[in-house]
Amino acid sequence: xxxxxxxxxxxxxxxxxxxxxxxxxxxxxxxxxxxxxxxxxxxxxxxxxxxxxxxxxxxxxxxxxxxxxxxxx
Length: 73
What we know:
Elements: E1 6-7, E2 10-11, H1 17-28, H2 34-41, H3 49-59, H4 64-72
Antiparallel strand pairs: 1-2
Helix pairs in contact: 1-4, 2-3, 3-4
């Protein structure tokens, strides 16, 4: 699995590691959802994990349920 804090050359804040570990497993493993990874990562989530979760839920309806699991910790 790709390191949670380093995805396709993007350096992500350390506190996002658990979130991205889950995202990597589901998004990178799905050819259908993979294109959304770039959208999610380029949407200006800044350093706010709550905004990042919102972006994931808003951009990819198919992953609403696992985004909620991640948000609920």
